[in-house]
Write a structure and sequence with these properties.
Chain A: InterPro entries: PurS, PurS-like_sf. The complex is a heterodimer of chains A (79) and B (224). With 79 residues, chain A is an alpha+beta fold. Chain A has a single domain, classed as Phosphoribosylformylglycinamidine synthase subunit PurS (Mth169, Chain: A, 2-Layer Sandwich), CATH 3.30.1280.10. Chain A is built from 2 helices and 3 strands, in the order βαβαβ. Chain A starts with a strand and ends with a strand. Chain B is α/β, with parallel strands linked by helices. The longest helix of chain B is centred in the C-terminal third of the chain and has 13 residues. The mean pLDDT of chain B is 96. Classes of the chains: A alpha+beta (79), B alpha/beta (224). At the A-B interface, α1 and α2 of A face loops of B.
């Protein structure tokens, strides 16, 4: 079973890297980009076969390591 | 003063930190403790977490180090009232362990900054800074890519209200919230700071402003 975790800076936390990407897009001529937020995708291969259990475990992984919940939010997809 | 310096793969200020501690501690041998240890040496007064790029800054700066075997022993030591100093990557590790609030984000200018900066000593009500004068301006080097301190509004208000901001930048180099360069734990015995006192602790460094911190700490330990 695979899991995919998206980690993003929380709304309201200024994302300096996203801002830099936004400026670079503007200088390439891409107009109308009002905001860019940059995050991470983490893919996990799990031995678990029960989707609900896998989701609970990965959520715990996010809380303990994969995301820093002071500044980041996360979402978990199980496939 | 009995001190230990924690060493992670990628630490690069560990020996500088040990030298700085030894100088003020009368050359008692400061011990270097490898991250795979599960306990600290007995009878320690101070644990220092040095600068560097522990675990290559993988995932987030300090994140992996904060989950290494020795981290639990450091948290226990701090919770029992031990003194912990985290400098640069050490500050990042301390926020990741939860011993200090907030997080260190990518510098607002996105560049690695390596230069001497002016700092204002915001509080002298701690063993780390009571050798300075409150409001005094000192100079210490910074060398970091992720020193942009961030926390939520409630925590910031609490840090201010409880006089837990140790140092602020006189000319904010990295976008840090409220110009914060260093913060203290609630019991004032854990200090995390981005600037490097150990790199400005003897005349040969061209600046010994950082030596005051180590000396004050050593004197406090001698009295304890």
């Amino acid at each position: 079973m695979k899991a995919r975790v998206h980690v993003m800076l929380k709304n309201g936390v200024l994302d300096p890297q996203g801002e830099a990407v936004r400026h670079a897009l503007g200088s390439l001529g891409f107009e109308g980009v009002d905001g860019v937020r940059q995050g991470k995708v983490i893919e996990l291969d799990l031995a678990e076969t029960d989707a609900a259990k896998a989701k609970a475990t990965v959520t715990e992984m996010c809380e303990k390591l994969l995301a820093n919940t002071v500044i980041e939010s996360y979402s978990v997809e199980i496939a | 003063m009995r001190a230990a310096v924690i060493q992670f793969p990628g630490s690069n200020c560990d020996r500088d930190m040990a030298v700085a501690l030894n100088q003020v501690a009368g050359n008692e041998a400061t011990q270097i403790v490898w991250h795979k240890e599960t306990s600290l040496p007995d009878g320690l007064d101070v644990v220092a977490i040095p600068g560097g790029f522990s675990f290559g800054d993988y995932l987030r700066c300090g994140a992996i180090a904060a989950r290494s075997p020795i981290a639990k022993a450091i948290v226990d030591f701090a919770n029992k009232g031990g003194y912990v100093l985290g400098v640069c990557n050490g500050f990042q590790v301390l926020t990741e362990t939860g011993l200090l609030p907030g997080a260190l984000m990518r510098n607002a200018g996105l560049k690695y900054i390596c230069k001497p900066v002016g700092l204002k000593v915001e509080t002298t009500d701690t063993a780390f800074t009571n050798g300075y004068d409150k409001g005094q301006t000192i100079t210490l080097p910074v060398a970091h890519h992720d020193g942009n301190y961030n926390t939520d509004a409630d925590t910031l208000a609490r840090l201010k209200g409880d006089d837990r901001i140790a140092f602020t930048y006189t000319d904010n180099p990295n976008g840090s919230m409220a110009d914060i360069a260093g913060v203290l734990s609630e019991n004032r015995r854990v200090l995390g700071m981005m600037p490097h006192p150990e790199r400005a602790s003897e005349d040969a460094h061209g600046n010994a402003d950082g030596a005051v911190l180590f000396r004050a700490l050593s004197e406090a330990m001698a009295l304890a």
